[in-house]
Amino acid sequence: MLSFFKNLWDSMDAEKQKRLLAEKLEEEQRHLDTEIEKEENEKIKKGENFNMQNVLRSINAPQNGTLSSNDADKCFQRLGVITSLKSNHGTIDHAIFFEIEAAGGLASELKVGCHVKYLAYQQVHSDHIKVVQINEVSELFWDESMPTTEKIEQQIAELRNEKPTFFNTHQRNILGLIMERKPSAIVVDTEHKLMNINLDTIEIDFIPQAGDRVYICCNVQSDEHFVNRQGEILQEVSVHPARLLKQEKCEVRRLNTDWGVLNNDCYFTLDVVPNACKLDVGDIVLADLIECERDPYIWRCVKLSLLERKSPQVTTPSKAGTTSSKAGTTSNGEIPSDMNSRKESNHAITVSDDARCIFSSTFQTKRIEMVIKNNIERNMRVLSIDFLGRRRDSQVKLVDPEHDNTAFEIPGHSSRALVFEVESKFYGESREFFVIKFEKFRVKRSISVVVCETEVEAEAALAQSNHSTINGLNGGVQNLRQRSRYYANQVWSNKGEVIPGVGLATKRRFLSLRIAYYEVPERLRNAYLTSTSRQEMIDSVENMFPCLKEELNIKNYTIRFQTLVFLEEIEYFVNFRNYDRERAHFTRDGEFLSLTIENLSERRPSLVIGDTVRAINPWSNDNDKRSYDGVIHKVLFNRILLKFNEGFQSKYNGEDFRLEFYYSRFSFRKQHFAVNRIIKHLGEPFLFPSRVHTREEPQLQIELNSDDNLMLQDKHYPWFNQMLNPIQKRAIRNILRGEAKNMPYVIFGPPGTGKTMTLVETMLQLIKLIPSSRLLIGTPSNGSADLIATRLIESKQLQPGDFVRLVSQNQIEKELVPEHLMPYCATVDMAADGTCDDSMIVTESGMKLRCQMKYLGRHRMTISTCTTLGNFLQMGFPTGHFTHVLIDESGQCTEPEVIVPLCLVSQTRGQVILAGDPHQLPAIVINRFATDRGLSISLLERILGRTPYLRDVMRFPDTSGFDPRLVTKLLYNYRSLPSILNVYSELFYDSELRPMVNEKSSREAEMLKKLDVLLPLSEKRPKSHGIFFYGTRSENKQESDSPSWFNPLEARNVFLMAIKLYRQGIQPENIGIITPYLKQVKHLRTLFIEADIAMPKIGSVEEFQGQERDIILISTVRSSHKFINSDLRHSLGFVQSAKRMNVAISRARYLMFIFGNPHLLYLDHCWRSCIKYCVDNEAYLGCDLPDDFDSRPELKKDETILDQDVSK
Asked: Which reaction does it catalyse (predicted)?
């Protein structure tokens, strides 16, 4: 019996094994079939293993009476033989691929070997033929057997001489409704058919969604049979909204978790809201709307910008007794039923007015009394005294009664005193509120604490009227500006003979290419400088150049940017007038004439070597009206050294001259040249991309293996930097492949994510894997260029001959070139080859000066600022000489600056990489008019607003919504503790940044623990919380001759915090102090200098971009509501300036203190979020908070809080 069961079990096991084996073989067979099918498809698409050229020649052969042309799209009908057939596709004549859908109802009749008549379409300059429709099927082989290869080839040969019939084509717009949005396609319902459109093959200028009404621009067949010019659809070219309303003024009516409503008939998804712009119901926005069908909405918003925010109610300290409230009413305004009468309610209790305590320094103590008076016969019971928003750093505490939750009674017609102890803990003004809770109502009071250097100053500040003299000061500044413009125009208009000075080097007469002068048009100059009002100036300029009122496009690109650069130069000229002297003299200094200029190092714009000083003698008695230019050869601490014409220099004997200062225009001229050249050089697909154009073959057939290592032709290539994270590696892989043709690649690098590290690795891999490559690396500043050069040296992969760092003579003379970079540095001599002697000089440090074309441009890498790289434009390098242009910190460059080096890259073989962060500070543009019209918007930011570069999470869910062929967003943050990172990640980067600094075991976490003694006590706050807000209510000031602001009390608080950090062993170099106003920078520096204490780095936000410190102290300065509307309009300081705020709060590694007035900053949503984050984590200290942040006790439905006495 046992053997029987054993045999039965073995037979069942054998059957099971056979079945499993069969299933496995079947699965392997299916896999092999799939792979073979893929290979066949690739062969078909690539034109392998068949004579495609024979087919093309038969189609393109000239025919009598046909419409064929080699320089136009072709639509034709011809006969062919089915040579292969799969479930969803097949081939005709071994050469032409078709989808089964093209056969329509004839699909079931298709067989290998049968004849078909098909309609096809071929675009000009393309070998690809698209089968649009199979119209007829004729079966030549009636038996069931497969026709032999010989018979099929015989039929193909016979039909080869059949001539196709050609048709005309035209474009037609077809209206439709998007029924479904797939990741890479849309399904559109039209009157003709349901169209499945691949987003990779069309141009589209918005991110489509289901429900959108669109029109599809198609190429269609046309001949005498199509009377209505409809014809067969050959190819979809582009998709556009059926209707588009631009810049519509709308009101936010509703907000949900991930969508909202405008004007009741338009909806929007939150992905169209700009980062750091958090909307509230009631806000006014400018929106681009497209027609849709999503009941009840008929419009969808595709682009949105905040125009006007529905501001929260501004809370300002009020004087006691100036307002009154009705007592005895419930929260809905009704009189409580159990109160004796309205009269008793209003006169039952009287409480002293709000109190103020004034201190002349910190750590002083005072006691004050507030009296509660019972005005009626019966006893009144006080249930408790509750402080609103009570914090651990409170400066007020109740002394009598000892416990604020102790109930007590006040007999009829008697009083009870409340005794408070007030201690001054920090400078500025704060206000603390408390509520006296009775049985049926509450009374609210406050105590203001003012801490200044003297009581007189504090009293004066509190007694100051609402009408400040600042309005007059601003008016004076405005009048001064207008006078400076009139003066600038007068200087510009002066004509006369000018004797040039002696330059730094001999001017080269022979250049391979000479850049024009591009003088500012006189009519533009006059309109800008002589208009009596800003509005008059705007109207005049826009009437002259209507393109400034239009959106930027390929047609107005050149004239618009040229005008904006001219306007920037005019403002630069106006600012340069600050150096002019009505009467001054020179002193001799060796071979130079010296001119003393006070505060030269702090003046802006800076004087540089090569600028000129024009000496004019209006008091001369002779008829010599000539002027003399002196060229600046050296810029010292408070004086400049000049060389004039030899005759003037030798005869000068201390006479007085009127002096006018002039800058070198070469930088502006290079920008004008580039703006004029770039359209022809790189074209519309580069400047205004509307779809992804791909190369026929990638730049390199490189991939990442399972270990994220580079593989090229089955060979492993190591990373030079082993610390790269997976996203950085993917970015470099995407750049090396270079699949997109003539389109910039963007490395989107938020703060602390290793953008420069990624760029350096990219450079090294490019020159290693592409031996023919020659790279230009451009930056907005010399500091950025020095950093890249330093990182390349530290990689130890390059030698001095492999790359060159181009520098200017100004850097050399000012000794700004780092010593370790000197062997790699060179200056340019732009003379054409063979037109002058080689005058290159090699210094002891290794720097090469006056290098000509035969030396420069031959290195594998050339690193410099964008404008300095523009010197190569005049040196005659052939097209394609430079293969790659990489721009670091490209968000800090204006578009004309960036395109200067881009004019040197090849359109066909070249590649452009833009690295930067569009959410950090833009380029510095001093002309406000030009800023408002887009000059400060970088090419990086503008390109990221074009459709192929837009974030589309549905289409690219694994790459932060960006097409990996065009953009990589870096996400790993190596700078900040998570508590600091969370703030700017949520506000500006869609909460995608990933902290790599451990909040428990990192160096940053350990350092923060050591400073715990300085931080406010809290049991709730996490130990690793590193961001604190120090509320200060104080006065911001402005001097009569300057529009800049400063805040003495806030500066003092910052100074004292720095002293506390010093006492804990923190070194000055580990601290950074950031403030948006230069006056505050100077005031803070003065405090450190007067105290004779080591000074940390103190500077504006611009000075800290790209830098980081262990500890950051931020002084926001503004504290007055009087000019908040102006600040909101013009994004002054930190108010309504998201990019400025982002840079400021993303510099700290483990600790950041923000000093500011919460009553002002909370009007801005970003700051409100930041303050709330600190409050929620018990990381707020300082003055009282606005009402929005009060954690007040809950009211019962029959109670109300009274702001004033119940007797009033």
From this structure: ATP + H2O = ADP + phosphate + H(+)
Evaluate whether residue 912 is within a structural domain.
yes
Looking at 659-740, list the stretches that DSSP marks H as alpha helix, in order from N- to C-terminal side: 666-682, 684-687, 726-737
- Whether residue 194 is predicted with pLDDT greater than 60 in this model: the reply is yes
CB atoms near residue 678 (< 10 Å): 22
Residue 1130 has pLDDT above 60, yes or no: no
Give the 3-state secondary structure of residue 1135. Answer: coil
Tokens of 586: 């020179």
Bridge-based pairing state of the strands 745-748 and 911-916: parallel
- Domain region containing 31: 1-42
- For residue 203, is it within any domain? yes
Closest by CA position to 780, among listed 923, 623, 648? 923
Q: What percent of the chain has pLDDT over 70?
A: 81
pLDDT tens digits for range 1039-1075: 555 557 778 889 999 999 999 999 999 999 999 999 9
| Rounded Cα distance, 1156 and 1133, in Å | 12
At 330, the amino acid letter reads: T
Q: Read off the DSSP letter of residue 1109.
A: E
Predicted confidence at residue 137, as pLDDT, reads 86
Q: Secondary structure of 266-324 in the HEC alphabet?
A: EEEEHHHCCCCCCCCCCCEEEEEEEEEEECCEEEEEEEEEEEECCCCCCCCCCCCCCCC
In a domain, 497, yes or no: no
What are 851-879's pLDDT values in tens digits? 888 888 889 999 999 999 999 998 888 87
- Are 154 and 235 found together in one domain? no
Residue 695 belongs to some domain of the structure: no
Strand, helix or coil at 136? strand
Q: Residue 1002's pLDDT band (boundaries 50, 70, 90)?
A: very high
378-429 pLDDT per residue, tens:
888 898 888 876 566 688 888 888 766 678 899 988 999 898 989 888 777 7
pLDDT score for 983: 95
Q: Edge-to-edge strand order for the sheet containing 1071-1074?
A: 1097-1099, 1071-1074, 1109-1115, 1148-1156, 1027-1031, 1180-1182
State both tokens at 265: 């008939």
The pTM of the whole model exceeds 0.85: no
Q: What is the DSSP letter of 104?
A: G
Q: Cα separation of 238 and 176, whole Å?
A: 13
Q: Can you name the residues that pair with 28 across neighbouring β-strands?
A: none
**Number of separate domains in the chain:** 8
In contact, 1112 and 1075? CB cutoff 8 Å? no
Which pLDDT value is given to residue 212?
Answer: 96
Looking at the structure, do residues 966 and 988 belong to the same domain, yes or no? no
Q: Which residues contact 6 (CB under 8 A, 6 or more apart)?
A: none
d(CA 32, CA 45): 20
CATH classification of the domain holding 216: 2.40.50.140
CATH (domain of 438): 2.60.40.10
Q: Which residues are CB-contacts of 550 (< 8 A; sequence separation ≥ 6)?
A: 556, 560
Kindly state whether residues 144 and 195 are assigned to the same domain. no
Largest CA distance in the chain: 140
Structure tokens that stand for 383 in this block: 């249930």
List all residues 6 or more positions away from 555 whose beta carbon is below 8 Å from its beta carbon: none
Phi and psi dihedrals of 503, rounded to 5? -75, 175
Separation of alpha carbons 945 and 938, rounded Å: 11
Distances (CA, A) of 32 to 25, 29, 87, 162, 410: 10, 5, 16, 38, 95
**Quick check: helix, strand or coil at residue 176?**
strand
Provide the CATH number for the domain around residue 630: 2.40.30.170
Residues 27, 60 within the same domain? no
Q: If pLDDT is split at 50, 70 and 90, which confidence band does 58 have?
A: low
Task: Tell me the pairing of strands 233-241 and 203-204.
Answer: parallel
Element (H, E) at 530: helix 522-530
